[in-house]
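Example 3.2
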Amino acid sequence: GISCILLGVICLCCSIGFVVYNYWEEENAAKFTETLLEDVHHMINEQNVTQDELQTKMPTVKVDGYDCIGILSVPVLELELPVLTDWSYAKLKKTPCHYYGSYYEKDFVIAAHNYKAHFGRLSELQSGDVVVFTDVSGTTHHYEVVLLETLPKEATKEMITSGFDLSLYTCTLGGGSRVTVRCSSVQKVR
């Protein structure tokens, strides 16, 4: 009986430690994102990007040692987030990242963790909601949510060959699936 009680106490302590660690990690990501966002806003206003550069690749700016491609805004969720140029697990722990494609090719995919300050509320979006991406040249790209879907975590091909102009995704709480929001370009925000 004593060993069962001790095992239970150990499991409880581990669980509490895991919750505290996740909370700490999420808070650090929120602080990092807020600081980086402010710096990216300043850099966007100072950019001089030529039209030739704009037609060949997505322009970037280096902010605090990170290459950024712009700012993602989801007004209905009150989100405004900087987006890093390329993704890695370490970068995803800090802020959303460009996963695949580009806004020029209309196959743009952005990934983020399911932190509340990042894509944790992505599943609350509905068809018709507006998403805006402002690239580092200051050009805004407007999108409208068309579809919400849940994909298996192994569905990489389905993620990047969707035929949608913009896809946003994050993992579900257990990490077994991906909450995915598909968007189409629109001329103007309604």
